[in-house]
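Fold it.
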Amino acid sequence: MIIFIIVVLIALCLILIWYSNTYNKFQGLIIRINEVEANIDTVLRKRFDLLNKSINIIKGNIDTEEEVLELIVKLRSRKISNFDLDRQLYEAINEFNYYKDNYPLLAESEALLKIDLSLNESEHEIIALRKYYNDIITDYNKMIRKLPSNLVAMLLKYKERTYYDGKNMNDDIKNDFKL
């Protein structure tokens, strides 16, 4: 009887150690996800601010009655996710590039050239952060799907997260079977 109790206690201790280890792995991934989301938020806000500054420069150098970078003006008062903000900023950057390429006076503006250079630098940052984010999400989603860590995920009600491009792991599986 004592041996049975000892075996049960050892088994419970091993389960507790495994649970703690798995929980800590999830927490480490969640911390990394939050960290990279904050970094992405910083870069997106930087891009937004750069495009916002360019509005007055563009208006000051060209004669137009139309609203310049209207999308940026609309985004000022909206609360949207980083995913949506990134997509909207790409559209605004395309409009920015249109003005820069089609109005010779703008191409000579030193302030606009600095903004353009900063936008290009931020593009490299966002690409690197997006890749890092997706790598972490892959590890996180694998833990949620695989035994035995998915048992801890179910207990803690962790759900799969989408990749930065908006896809989830099922999108890739569905596309693989369509071939």
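The chain has a mean pLDDT of 87.
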